Structure formats: C-alpha cells, structure tokens
C-alpha cells in the first residue's frame, strides 16, 4: 500500500467527522465567475503599490514574529468601524484574524465546544454549522420563514426555549440576502442566555444600521463579526474582524494561536485600509447593479429574493442543478447553494452581469 492508496476510511478520524463534506464552492475556470460573493473590481493601482511597499518594509522584519495582538491593525479597524457606524470604539473592542471564518472559529472555541450548543436560522451561511462541527459544538438548525425572512419574535421564543450557548444571526443573510432591523434583533438578544454573533460580512452593502450600535446595551452577549473580503475587495488578503466588549477579546486570546496574523497580512491589511474610500466606492456601484439585475430577472419571469447584499438568490427552477450546469456551459459560474428551485448569483461588473442575464434567457427552468 502506498500513501496514495490510503483513504479517509483507513484513518483514525473522529467519529463525528466521518461522512462529512468539506466546504466547497466549486472553483471552475470559466470566463464569468459570480459564485463566491467577491468584489468584482480589482484593487486600484495606488492600493496595490501601497500594499507592495508595506509588505516590502515588513519583509525586513521577517526573522521576527509579528505583533501577536495586531494592535496597530486593530486601531485602524476601530477607526474605520467607528467612522462608519458612529459608535466610539477602540482597539480594545476589536479583534482580527485570517478571514471572519477564523474569527467565528475562535468564538466557537471559546464559547462553544463539547456539551454546548450553537443555534442558527437556516438557510444561512454554511460555514456556521461546519465550524460548529469542527469545534464539537452541537448545531441547532432553526428554520426561517418560507420567504427566507426571519420571524424574530418567534426566533426569540425558540432561543428562550432552547437556551443555546451561541446564536448566529447573519445580516444581511447569506445566501438569501435580507437583513434585520436593529429593533427586531433586540428580542433575540434579550432572550439569549449566552453569546449572540451577528455576522455582518455584507454590512457595507446594506443601508441598515449596524448591530455595533447595540454593543453598549448588550456588552456581555453581543459580538459583531465583519470581513474585508467583500466590500473591501480583500478576499485574497484574508482579514476578518469583530467588535465586542474588551472582555470578549480577552476570551478569544485564550484560544487563538500565537502569531496567527502574519506580519505580511497585518501590513497589507493596514495599507488596504488606508485606501478604504477608494475601495468602498464600488459599494454604491454594486448596489445599483444589484437592483438592475433583480429588475431584469423579474422581467425574465424569475423571482429574485429581495437582497441588500452583493448577491441575489433567485428562482424558480424545476431542477436547479441542471440549470446551474447550463449556466456553466454558457461560461457563467453561479452558485447552487442547495436550496430547492433556487440559485445564487454574485453581483459582478455591468459586463459580467449582462453576460449572466443573457445566459439567464437561455437556461432551462
Ligand atoms: N460570513 C458570511 C455570511 C459569509 O458569507 C462569508 C464568506 N462567504 C464569511 C463570513 C467568511 O468570509 P471571510 O472568511 O472571507 O471573511
């Protein structure tokens, strides 16, 4: 037997991981890729130059470990988040990691784990249950309404009954696109006995107020997670962050690996943040395109789910898998998120969106 002959079944894998599938958005080499909710606009040349210069300077210190607590980066993130939400925050309220996925994993490591539960409203971001499984936190799926909106009064009742250690509320929600007003979030916060994570990965695309505004009212419960992957066009840089009470940051430091954010990541993210105004200018363009695409889909007889993120879930398809394949054959990669009769498309450049709409006229329904 060679190394290549060994299969998962031959390994002493944890019982609870047997039979599970890894997270996997197919990454196919097609001309139009609208499947992972990236920002379609590449970083402007000034940002690329600034990142390159910052990384070059940081490289001179590569023989040293980075700042374990990423203080300067957290100060920059606090400045950005304070300016965009109107809430006074300092680096003591901010924590950062390699993508918000790592932030969420650290939250689960600190507040979840064996014997504990995490509850989410599905369909929602598929990594929440996967991270839950990886940290041996029992996942409690709770359905949304048939139109994918969240009945927060009912949600609060379920939370009060089930008493999960962690509640996930994704706003705007991926993959359905809708977001929740703050006044509707509060009953869930009041009912929750433990931590409530509001995953605001797509917040910049929404006109709603951020849950960051509720931090003072629920300091021992609320964590708001964010990312530079979407609006900031920094998905490849891997930088996610959260805002919470300083004590939450202390808790996460118990589980984070030392030096988890490389000196290169910290330098690149700080450089990218210096160009936030230029990068975030794409948000208005993408939001306008989202409305144009939704309207055009309606014109073609599709039913787009109202979205204030940079993607749209739309239907109805008799066989979403077959229709997904037809899009691929037409050179357009959209996402089959496993919701019957529906596909999700990320908003691209106007040209990419036109190609998607042209393909939409031809796909079987
Ligand atoms: N939360 C939500 C709701 C997302 O959709 C995503 C990315 N698809 C993430 C978190 C994680 O993004 P990242 O790790 O790139 O920050």
Indicate the percent of residues in helices.
Answer: 25-40%
User: What composes the largest sheet?
Assistant: 7 strands, mixed
CATH fold assignment of the largest domain = Aspartate Aminotransferase, domain 2
CATH architecture of the largest domain: 3-Layer(aba) Sandwich
Low-pLDDT regions: none
Small-molecule binders: 4'-deoxy-4'-aminopyridoxal-5'-phosphate
The radius of gyration is 21 Å
Number of domains: 2
CATH C-level name of the largest domain: Alpha Beta
N-to-C SSE string, H for helix and E for strand? EHHEHEHEHEHEEEHHHEEHEEH
Distance between the amino and carboxyl termini: 48 Å
Query: Strand content of the residues, in percent?
Result: 5-15%
- What is the 3D shape? globular
Strand arrangement across the biggest beta sheet: 2-8-7-6-5-3-4
Structural class by secondary-structure content: alpha/beta
Mean pLDDT: 96
- Alpha plus pi helix count: 11
The named CATH superfamily of the largest domain = Type I PLP-dependent aspartate aminotransferase-like (Major domain)
Beta-strand segment tally: 12
Protein name: Histidinol-phosphate aminotransferase
GO molecular function: histidinol-phosphate transaminase activity; pyridoxal phosphate binding
Family: Belongs to the class-II pyridoxal-phosphate-dependent aminotransferase family. Histidinol-phosphate aminotransferase subfamily.
Keywords: Amino-acid biosynthesis, Aminotransferase, Antibiotic biosynthesis, Histidine biosynthesis, Pyridoxal phosphate, Transferase
């Amino acid at each position: 037997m060679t190394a290549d002959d060994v299969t998962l079944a031959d390994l002493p894998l944890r019982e609870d991981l047997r039979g599970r599938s890894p997270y996997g958005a197919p990454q196919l080499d097609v001309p139009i890729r609208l499947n992972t909710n990236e920002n379609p606009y590449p970083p402007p040349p000034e940002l690329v130059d600034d990142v390159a210069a910052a990384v070059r300077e940081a490289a001179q210190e590569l023989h040293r470990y980075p700042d374990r607590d990423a203080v300067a980066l957290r100060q920059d993130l606090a400045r950005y988040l304070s300016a965009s939400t109107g809430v006074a925050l300092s680096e003591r309220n901010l924590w950062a990691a390699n993508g918000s996925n790592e932030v969420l994993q650290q939250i689960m490591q600190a507040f979840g784990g064996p014997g504990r539960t995490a509850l989410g409203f599905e369909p929602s971001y598929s990594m929440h249950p996967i991270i839950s499984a990886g940290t041996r936190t029992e996942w409690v799926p709770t359905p949304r309404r048939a139109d994918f909106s969240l009945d927060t009064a009912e949600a609060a009742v379920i939370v009060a009954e089930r008493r999960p250690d962690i509640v996930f509320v994704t706003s705007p929600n991926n993959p359905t696109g809708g977001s929740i007003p703050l006044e509707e979030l509060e009953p869930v916060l009041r009912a929750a006995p433990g931590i409530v994570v509001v995953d605001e990965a797509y917040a910049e695309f929404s006109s709603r107020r951020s849950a960051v505004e509720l931090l003072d009212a629920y300091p021992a419960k609320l964590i708001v997670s964010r990312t530079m992957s979407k609006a900031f066009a920094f998905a490849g840089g891997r930088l996610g962050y959260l805002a919470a009470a300083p004590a939450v940051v202390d808790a996460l430091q118990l589980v984070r690996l030392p030096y988890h954010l490389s000196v290169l990541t910290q330098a690149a993210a700080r450089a990218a943040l210096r160009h936030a105004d230029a990068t975030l200018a794409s948000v208005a363009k993408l939001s306008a395109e989202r409305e144009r695409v939704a309207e055009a889909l309606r014109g073609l007889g599709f039913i787009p789910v109202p979205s204030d993120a940079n993607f749209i879930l739309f239907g109805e398809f008799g066989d979403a898998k077959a229709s997904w394949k037809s899009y691929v054959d037409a050179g357009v990669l959209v996402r089959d998120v496993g919701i019957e009769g529906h596909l999700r498309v990320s908003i691209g450049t106007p040209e990419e969106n036109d190609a998607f709409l042209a393909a939409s006229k031809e796909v079987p329904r």
